[in-house]
């Protein structure tokens, strides 16, 4: 790849979300003190040979998730088989059958045992071979690696620490990399971490400014440098290290690290140097070894075998004692048929010897009290059941052509014993698709299509009415259903019966648009021009199209723009704006261009908005703002965010639609939708200049209070806003999820959702999928201090969490309403402390008392630890469901693991 390569030379610092956090050149922070235990790794960039010798002999990039290999298969598989008490008994019986006192041929005992053990070992080998094939696919992927004469492709398993790697768009990172440069001048790239934390939104990463010039293949010919950083660890969100380059030391943080199994998106290419390989990478540090699982019935059978074996010994002892007594006292002096050597078994002078010999005979003779044929039958039945699962048409996916795969048949009978289900959210409960469904503009609600929660409520109402009055006619019942559902639910009072009951023909006429499920003729096809408050509606659409940080991509086949957005919500807003006639079509160095279809009759107009500043969306701020200058020179602040945050920042004149918009937001929330409020304000040139000077000072300052200064300056701008309206988007659930969860809850199963999403997102999805219900009391346990926790304050934080758990448990005990239901919601940082030995049992006791549990911002390892706690703490069967690499530990830890081959590509480890 030479200089002729086409590069996307965008200066992203004007609009990417970390712009306000990026120091200017020469304003780098002090290097981290990288030394001591846990910080001993040294990486020589572009010199992989230096790591082949001790003490820098790092592991290879080869990975294996199999239980066995060629050498260990026989001993490990035999050990697995003889963990079964029955097999140990049959082995002892086979050994005894080799003695001369055996009443049967040795073959009759050895052959059935060999058959049972052999069949089981073959089954284990086939199941492990599938894992091996999956590993081989990963290890043989190709990546471009810098060699002496330029870049060439190598398989992932041959990549070494120190290699410089070039990764193209939509490729996975082969190892943990330090980002050196990208196709953008500012060294920005977008990364999808779906396989790590389950989130579909893109995360920006940025390179150090000193390496931005390394943007061509030839630039790495003489490139060298040294990285000193932390040792391999499972923490996905932290990284500490220094980069020595050109006789200077530069600090590193997580924003420069690209983790293995993440995917490069929205960026033509990046260059990176390998820091961690193979099992040292963070994703593999979060994985666990493939466990050997045994069903509870099988373990119960072991206890039964112990009981039967004791009974067998008792019977054999009685028989042996009786035989010994018979030989000593009742043996005649003459024989009708005298044995050739009577002294071996029938010697009256040695009755004990005769009794012991008969004991062996009795053990073999009565041994069929424990039938080996039963185990043969069980193994055959399990294999057949697994085959039936594989060929089940109801679990066949027509879109992908995939069938269900029973990776192990050892756990079939365990499926009926499940007590707790632990599920991932993204890609498992949801489809990873946000759909724009409803909106409120200038106090008027638009959007007539019902959400999945509303439809589920209507269906439940229909079932209740059928139970109450089975004699009602179909027409009357349907009419009452519609009336009652809207009388008892404020979610959609303006929706008529036709919006719930849509004919098949009308459904067929709809053209599915990803991200857009809105239906209302009042706003579509330019009809909004006939609505009152047209100027407010116009501003609403412009906020949707302009207040964002996405990049448009033209689909040459369809001629329609698609968007690479940082969050699925933002992508849905842009699709909605496009369908309303405000198409975001171009982003330049410091502006966005919107193609307005209905701005002038009969023609579309391209309007350019100059981006002056972008104030990022964070979970703490819960809002995003962009300051733009329109074509008329007017400076506008366009803001979107949580309604509680926006409403607190409205001016007295900007609250005209607050009351009706609040009512609509409550209705949307009850319908399980994710809501945001939209607002704006106009600025004078002098007012903006004064604020921008303060913002520039905060952005270029150095010190611990830099983030606080930026937040205070941003807060100054986001005041005295004027409310425009609100949006409501729906995270599309997998088909039948609310009904499935409802039936599982009715069956008494407890459901936990473990997700990498933030708390607000998880709560909204909880409502959408019926995990959380209106009236359910929420218990949120969080760490008050969200920043770094020092060792001195750790005990204070633990005491605070313990106090929250104790208060919540006490509240549940004192609840007088027998039908009251509680939902526990906890984040990953708090979970770190809650899973410690001195607190985990109290946390589990609280969780067990709750009807639903949602764990947010959890790492893959925390998912596995929570699953282990539930499994061991309750002593009941657990089932884990996931669809990504971040769910493998959880799937392996549970009694039963179900892997979904979905958007994230999990194949059911």
What does this structure look like?
- It contains 26 helices and 31 strands.
- With 909 residues, it is an alpha+beta fold.
- The strands form six sheets. Strands 16-15-25-24-23-22-21-20-19 form a nine-stranded antiparallel sheet, sandwiched between helices.
- A hairpin with a 2-residue loop joins strand 20 and strand 21.
- Mean pLDDT is 79; it is low at 1-28, 476-510 and 904-909.
Q: How many beta-strand runs?
A: 31
Low-confidence stretches: 1-28, 476-510, 904-909
% residues in beta strands: 15-25%
Biggest sheet overview: 9 strands, antiparallel
Cα(first) to Cα(last) distance is 38 Å
Shape call: globular
Secondary-structure class: alpha+beta
- Rounded to the nearest angstrom, the radius of gyration is 34 Å
Largest beta sheet: strand ordering:
16-15-25-24-23-22-21-20-19
Quaternary organisation: single chain
Helix content: 25-40%
Characteristics:
single chain, 909 residues, alpha+beta, nine-stranded antiparallel β-sheet, seven-stranded parallel β-sheet, 26 helices, 21% strand, globular, disordered N terminus, disordered C terminus
Summarize the model shown.
With 909 residues, the chain is of the alpha+beta class.
């Amino acid at each position: 790849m030479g200089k002729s390569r086409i590069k996307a030379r965008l200066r992203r610092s004007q609009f990417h979300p970390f712009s306000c956090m990026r120091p200017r050149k020469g304003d780098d922070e002090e290097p981290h003190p990288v030394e001591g235990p846990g910080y001993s790794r040294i990486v020589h960039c572009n010199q992989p040979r230096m790591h082949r010798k001790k003490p820098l002999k790092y592991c290879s990039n080869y990975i294996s998730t199999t239980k066995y290999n060629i050498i260990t298969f026989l001993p490990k598989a035999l050990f697995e088989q003889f963990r079964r008490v029955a097999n140990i008994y049959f082995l002892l019986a086979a050994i005894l059958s080799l003695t001369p006192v055996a009443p049967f041929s040795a073959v009759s005992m050895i052959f059935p045992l060999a058959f049972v053990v052999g069949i089981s070992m073959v089954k284990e080998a086939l199941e492990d071979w599938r894992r091996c094939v999956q590993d081989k696919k990963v290890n043989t992927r190709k990546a471009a690696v810098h060699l002496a004469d330029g870049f060439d492709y190598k398989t992932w398993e041959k990549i070494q620490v120190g290699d410089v790697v070039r990764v193209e768009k939509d490729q996975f990172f082969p190892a943990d990399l330090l980002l050196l440069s990208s196709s953008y001048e500012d060294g920005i790239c977008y990364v999808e971490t779906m396989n790590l934390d389950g989130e579909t939104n893109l995360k920006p990463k940025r390179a150090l400014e000193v390496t931005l010039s390394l943007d061509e293949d030839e630039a790495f010919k003489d490139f060298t440098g040294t990285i000193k950083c932390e040792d391999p660890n499972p923490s996905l969100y932290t990284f500490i290290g220094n980069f020595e380059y050109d006789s200077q030391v530069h600090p590193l943080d997580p924003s420069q690290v690209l983790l293995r199994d993440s995917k490069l998106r929205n960026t033509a290419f990046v260059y990176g140097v390998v820091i961690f390989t193979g099992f040292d990478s963070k994703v593999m540090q979060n994985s666990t070894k493939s466990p050997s699982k045994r069903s509870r019935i099988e373990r119960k059978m072991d206890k039964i075998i112990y009981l039967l074996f004791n009974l067998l010994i008792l019977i054999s002892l009685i028989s042996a004692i009786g035989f010994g007594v018979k030989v000593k006292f009742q043996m005649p002096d003459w024989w009708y048929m005298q044995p050739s050597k009577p002294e071996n078994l029938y010697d009256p002078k040695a009755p004990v010897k005769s009794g012991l010999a008969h004991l062996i005979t009795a053990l073999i003779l009565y041994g069929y009290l424990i039938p080996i044929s039963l185990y043969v039958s069980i193994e055959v039945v399990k294999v057949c059941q697994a085959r039936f699962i594989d060929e089940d048409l109801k679990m066949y996916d027509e879109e992908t052509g995939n069938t269900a795969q029973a990776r192990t048949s050892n756990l079939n009978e365990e499926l009926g014993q499940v007590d707790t289900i632990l599920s991932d959210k993204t890609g498992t409960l949801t489809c990873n698709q946000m759909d724009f469904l409803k909106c409120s503009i200038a106090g008027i609600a638009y959007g007539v299509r019902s959400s999945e929660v509303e439809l589920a409520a209507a269906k439940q109402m229909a079932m209740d009415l059928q139970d109450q009055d089975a004699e009602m006619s179909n027409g009357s019942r349907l009419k009452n259903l519609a009336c009652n559902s809207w009388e008892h639910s404020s979610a959609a009072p303006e929706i008529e019966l036709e919006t719930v009951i849509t004919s098949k023909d009308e459904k067929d006429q709809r053209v599915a648009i990803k991200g857009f499920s809105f239906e209302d003729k009042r706003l579509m096809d330019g009809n909004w021009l006939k609505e009152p408050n047209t100027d407010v509606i116009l501003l609403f659409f412009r906020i949707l199209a302009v207040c964002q940080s996405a990049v448009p991509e033209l689909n040459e086949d369809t001629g329609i723009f698609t968007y690479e957005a940082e969050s699925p919500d933002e992508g849905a807003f842009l699709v909605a704006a496009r369908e309303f006639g405000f198409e975001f079509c171009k982003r330049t160095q410091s502006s966005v261009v919107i193609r307005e279809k209905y701005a002038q009759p009969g023609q579309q107009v391209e309007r350019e908005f100059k981006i002056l500043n972008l104030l990022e969306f964070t979970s703490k701020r819960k809002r995003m703002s962009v300051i733009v200058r329109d074509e008329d020179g007017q400076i506008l602040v366009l803001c979107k965010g949580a309604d509680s945050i926006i409403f607190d920042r409205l001016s007295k004149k900007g609250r005209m639609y607050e009351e009706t918009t609040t009512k609509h937001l409550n209705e949307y929330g009850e319908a399980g939708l994710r809501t945001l409020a939209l607002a704006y304000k106009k600025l004078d040139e002098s007012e903006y200049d004064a604020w921008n000077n303060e913002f520039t000072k905060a952005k270029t300052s150095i010190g611990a209070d830099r983030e606080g200064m930026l937040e205070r300056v941003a807060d100054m701008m986001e005041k005295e806003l004027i409310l425009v309206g609100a949006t409501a988007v729906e995270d599309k659930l997998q088909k039948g999820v609310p009904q499935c969860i409802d039936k599982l809850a009715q069956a008494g199963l407890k459901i936990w959702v473990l997700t990498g999403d933030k708390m607000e997102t998880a709560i909204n999805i909880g409502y959408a999928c019926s995990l959380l219900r209106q009236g359910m009391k929420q218990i949120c346990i969080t760490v008050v201090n969200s920043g770094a926790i020092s060792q001195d304050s750790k005990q204070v934080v633990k005491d605070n969490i313990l106090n929250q758990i104790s208060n919540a448990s006490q509240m549940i005990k004192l609840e007088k309403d027998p039908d009251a239901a509680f939902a526990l919601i906890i984040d990953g940082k708090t979970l770190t402390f809650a899973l410690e030995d001195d607190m985990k049992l109290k946390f589990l006791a609280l969780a067990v008392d709750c009807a639903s549990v949602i764990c947010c911002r959890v790492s893959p390892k925390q998912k596995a630890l929570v699953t282990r706690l539930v499994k061991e703490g309750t002593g009941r069967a657990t089932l884990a469901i996931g669809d990504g690499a971040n769910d493998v530990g959880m799937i392996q830890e549970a009694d039963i693991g179900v892997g979904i081959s979905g958007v994230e590509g999990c194949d059911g480890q």
